[in-house]
């Protein structure tokens, strides 16, 4: 489908991303989580413009009026644990959505920084519904591809939206190739990955900054 970079035109999103990246501000854990959440909120607002609508009639104190409403509520999903604040931001706006969760982590063995271990999935039926996946750091794309594969065992969504705070160029290209019908909403795209699979300049470890070092 396409990739939208939310920081391409300056807005408050840029200031929030700056705070997420900056070593002088990123260790305020509450503020880090809240900035992630705010990016999720903005992405949710933008995604809402892409959703199919239906006409409904409502009664005001003065008259009846025909208005547009979301036709089918989305299913919002995330990858535990780093994705939770970004996910919460999306859920703040789609307050009637159903939710799903995937638990996945990098093994971080001495000589293997890339293998993904996935051990938990819960997701409602997504058949014919817009599916939104919140993944704050799109590095190689490997864990996201695994998560999407598992989520798609729960049905065939009408739309696939992927919300990311910071992505590597390589990660975006990988997901665009693997899921050409997906729309990626990304805060910012960075050029490179380190040999350990971290996005650089990036922001470090989003899970640790949100919830503490493991
Ligand atoms: N996950 C993170 O938290 N940071 C990265 O740079 C890559 C993956």
From TrEMBL:
Q: What is its EC number?
A: 2.4.2.9
**Molecular function GO labels:** uracil phosphoribosyltransferase activity
Gene3D superfamilies cross-referenced by the UniProt entry: 3.40.50.2020
Q: Name one Pfam family in it.
A: UPRTase
Q: Where is the Phosphoribosyltransferase domain?
A: 12-212
Give the UniProt keywords, A-Z: Glycosyltransferase, Transferase
Uppermost EC category: transferase
Protein's name in the database? Uracil phosphoribosyltransferase
Species whose genome carries this gene: Chryseobacterium edaphi
